[in-house]
Input
Amino acid sequence: MSELFDAVDALVASRSPLPPVEERKRLRVAHGLTLDEVAAALKVRRATVSGWESVRKPTEPRGPEREAYARLLNKLAELYPAPPATDEAAAPTVPAAPSPAGTHPPTTAQAPDAVALTATENTQPPPAAAGAVAEAARPARTTGPSSSRRPAATKTAPPASPAGGIEARFENGPLAVIDVDAAGKTLAYCTGGLVLDVPAKSLPALVDWTLKEARLGQPRLSGPGKDADPLLVLTEAALERYGLPATLTEEERLAGRIPEGHKAVKQLARADWKLTKRGFGPWARIYRPAQGSDRNCVQLCIPSWHALDSRHWGRAAQLPPADLARVLGTYASRVMTPRGSTAVTGLELMTALHPPTRASEPDATGKRHSEHNPGSLGRDPVDCAPCEAPDGHPLLADLPRFHVRGPGEKLFEEACDWARPMTDAECTLRHLVGIDVNMAFAAGANGLVVGLGAPTHVKAPVFDAKLPGSWLVDLSHVDLARVRVGKDKWVNLDASLLPSPFTPNGERPEGPAWYATPTVAYAQELGYEVRPLEAYVRYDNGRYLDGWYNRLRDAYLDTMADLGVHADVEPAAFLTAMDGWRERDPQLAIVVSAIKATVKGGLGKLRERPRGEGWRPGQPWRALSRPTWRPDIRAAVISRTRINLHRKIVKHAAFTGQYPVAVLSDCVVYAAEGTSPLDFLPYRDGKPLPGGFKLGVNPGLVKHEGTQTVLWGEEVRERFDAPELNLARYIKDGTVTDADNGE
Output
C-alpha cells in the first residue's frame, strides 16, 4: 500500500502549482539568487531555469524538478510577498522586457529587477523578451531633453535589492552609442533604453566625461582579472561632431587607421592621452598609464569605419543608436564587452577568464606580489613544436625556400571537407537532407585537456590518450570496414562510403603523419593499436577552455531561448521552433551570429598568421609575442570536433545502414525519402540513437540545415562536371557558387 501512496504523492507533485513566469523571476531576484544557483540546486541547466522564466514562450518543469521548483518559490513567496495592487498598478500595461545587458529596463529610470539582477549575477542576466513585447518596451528613437538625463542623477535601489546593490562605477552599463540628434544635442544611448546627455564638446573632453561621469564599464569575469573598459560607439553624426572622418579613405582602410598627423590625434596628444600601437582605427583604445589599480582607458568602436564586420554582425552598423546599443549590450552582458572583432573578443575572453597573473599571499611585510595564475597560459609566450609551426615560422627558417612539408613533417588538423558520388540506391530516394552541428567547435572545446606550457620532445613514446600533444604515428592500418563501436561490439561497414577520420579530405592516410591527441585516441577507440614514432607532449596541461565554453554556451542558449528555441524540447517541437527563428527578433539574431563567430574566430586567432607589415618567411610576426598564440590548442579543438562528428556518423551507419553523401566541417548530408531530419534519424519513442545524432539547440546537437532534391544534386554535379562536388556547401539554399559561406 505504501508504494501506491508514494506513486500518488509523486503524481500530485508532478502537477504542483507554479506562479506566473513574471512572479517566478521576481521571487528569485528578490532573494538575490542567480540562474546558475537555482540550476545547481535543482540539478538542471541554467538555460532550463531561464526557460521557466521566459515571458515570451515559457517552458514548464516536469517530474521531481517541478516539485522542488514549486517548493523553492513557495518559500520565497513567504519571504517576499507580492506588493499590494494599487489603482495605478491595476491599470492594464504592456510588460516591459528585461534589459539585454542587465543594467536598465527600457526607460530612463532604474528598475528594481535590473538593479538586483546585475548585482547578483555578474553580468549574466536572464534573457530579454523578444518580439512584440520587446518592441513595445523599447523607447522612441528620437529622444528629447525630457527623456535624457545626466548620470549624476540619484538612483535609489529598491528594498528587495540584494545587499550592496549595483556597482556605482558601472551603473549605466558596459557601453554607449554616441549620436547627435536633429537639434544638435549629443546623446549617449546606453543599454536598456537609458539615454544620457553628453556635455563634451571635444574628443579629449568626451574621454574625460566617459571616465569621470558616464559610469560605464563592466565588472571583471575572473577574480584576478581586470574590469572591462567603457566602450563608446560613434555614429557618423558623432564623428562629425568630434572632428573625425565619416569614412576612411582606401589608403586609411588598408593601414587600419587615420594618419598620426590628423588633428584629432594631435588633440588627444596635447591632452596627454595615448593610443595603442594600432593607432586610431575602427577599434581605437585611448588611455593614460594606469595609476595603481585604477585604469584610465576608453575604447571606441566606429561602425562606419567597418568595425562591425557584416559577415558576423549583419546589419548592426545600420541600426538606429538605441537598437545598436541593445544588440551590443546584449552581446556584452552575455559574452563580454567587445574588444575588437569577434575573433579578437573570442581570444580576449579566454584571457579574461584565465588571467595570466594573480596577487600572491602577503609576504612578511604584508605586501602582495604578482605571481603566475595556475590554469592560465601565463604572461610569456612559448615556442610551439616544429610540426605545429605554420609555414614561414622562424622555427622553419632553415628549410629550403620552396620546400613543401608533407604529413610526416606538419601537423594538419583541419575540419573535414569530403564528398562522394551517390550510390544507385541513394539515387532512387527523393531528397538530400543536411544536418548541422550547433556550435560544433565550442562543443569540441568542452572538457578538452590542452597544454598550458611548452612541449617536450619524446622518442618512441607509449601513447597516452590523457596527455595533450602532437604524435607522429602511422594510422594507415585502421580499416573502417570493421570497427569497434562499443566496449566489445564490432561491426562491419562499407568503408568506401565513409570518410577517413584521419585526414581533412577524408582520404585514407598512406603512412606516418602528425596528429593531435584526440585523433590518435579515436584510432584506439575504433579497436586498433597505435605505436607513435615520436611526439611533442605537454605535461603541464589542464581544461583551459572549459570556462570559455560555458560562457559562450550560456550566451548562445539564452539568446536562442529569447528567440523561442528552448533546450530539452521534443524533436518535432524543436524543428518547428527553428523554423523562422531569425525573423522573430532580427536584432537578437545578430547576437546569435556574433556569438558563433566569437567561437570560430577566437579559435582561429590561436594560430594567427602574418598580416602584412613587411613580413618575410622565417621572420617572427606580431602574434608570436602573445602567450595565446597556441596552434596546438587550435589543432586539438579541431581534431576533437572532427572526431566527434565522425563518431556519430559511424554509430549512425552501424545502426541504420545509412552513409553520408557529403561532409563539410559541421554539416552532414544524407539521402532520404522525406524532407525532414526525422525521416532518417533513428528516433524511437522520442529518444535518439545513443551516441548518434540528436536534434536540439545545445552545442553538439544538430539542427536542420537544409533540404534539396536528389535531382538537384545530380544536376549540379553534372553541370560542373564534378561527381564529388561537396553538396554540403550548398544544401542550405541550393544556390551553387564558388564561394564557401562558412556554414
